[in-house]
Amino acid sequence: RRKKKGDSILENPSIPNPFPELCCSPFASVLSASLLPKATSRKKQVIKVYSEDDTSRALEVPSDITARDVCQLLILKNHYVDDHSWTLFEQLTHTGLGRAIEDHELVMEVQSNWVMEEETKLYFRKNYAKYEFFKNPLSFFPDHMISFPSETNAALSHSGILQMFLSSSTYPEIHGYLHAKEQGKKSWKKLYFLLRRSGLYFSTKGTSKEPRHLQFFCEFSNSDMYMSLTGKKISGAPTNYGFCFKPNKSGGSRDLKQLCADDEQSRTCWMTAIRLLKYGMQLYQNYMQPYQGRSGCSPLNITPMRSISENSLVAMDFSGHRSRIIENPTEALSVAVEEGLAWRRRGCLRLNSHGSPIAMPNMAIHRSQSWFHHKISREEAQRLILQHGLVDGVFLVRDSQSNPKTFVLSLSHGLKIKHFQIVPLEDDGKLFYTLDDGHTRFTDLIQLVEFYQLNKGVLPCKLKHYCARIAL
Q1: Which one, 34, 68, 333, 415, has the greatest CB density within 10 A?
Q2: Element (H or E) spanning 418, and its range?
Q3: pLDDT digit string, tens, across residues 237-285
Q4: pTM of the entire structure?
């Protein structure tokens, strides 16, 4: 009866159509299809993601989810600031290898290539070097390792370098010496390698580039590139700057094609060039995606997005009998600084046996900071910074293993990790910390870090990005 009633309503010509423009619009069906949920439900699977402190979180996700979408999901669930550096890592525990999964890669497809005998985990962490090439391409390729086509001008601009690497017709040639592990043996051999569009080759006769002297080593469409995270401990490589290629469908670590460079600059050059060769324009699209649809913003001047609640916050002064809103930005900044110092003073007060507050040295307030890593070794600090990307200014602070009651600032600069001793000084019964033999003194480590985030001082660069052990 209800169906007949509906049919009679539709057939009744006396009721006009209130939206006649939708009937004649060719986009009506497209519009409704985009607004309504799909009829077919996507299959879901559970993945486990680890953080730096080895805590894990299980997520139920669609089977076609990308690495970027997993990162966005974890950012939302944990209320992190999205500065476009969050990355999903694939880490092979037994072999000490790891790689950053590209933002466009399907996570289930990555997991389908895992083998039973190798313990493989997904890690969620920041990688500040993920798209650094697009910001500063000239620093990634030393002159002695790159050759441009003969028709190219000798001096290439910033954009010219980018266009050449992303072009489908031309590609620079990367060349230089690498140590290669011989298949089925423990020995390594130093060979002259060349990277061309068709793959990676080595010369059987010195540095000859003649076709008859070039032997094919590896192609990249059916393999993934990994970095050695444990130096030469597991692989027995001649240097600590190893990387390798692992076939997607294989029997595991026995099919690895292992290489190592003489220094970090050389390894970074090879790995960046191979990554660009394999993914090309897709990599640039990944880099640009967060900035699309945001008018007036370029990738170089973008700032991390904050939530609506953060943007609606205002500065308040509660020092008088009545609270008031601080509208002057300079006054708001000075009040914030005073509050920070007052917090430090409050945190350093202890009660004596009579209940009266007594001042204590600022010994432990740094332990709550994300950049402080307590008792980790020099090797562990270097591994953490390497995983976060060797960009100038990546840092952490840790306890010194060799000198008790002192600290060490570990800092990345120029593709190298440098370590600076933070020495405690006592003057008139007060404890200070210094990096420059007492010329610049700080009452606690937080003040020290904040100062060098704004001033280079005796350091090779300012402190920009800290390594944090996040918990999921």
Answers
A1: 68
A2: strand 416-427
A3: 999 999 999 998 766 667 889 999 999 999 999 999 999 999 999 999 9
A4: 0.75
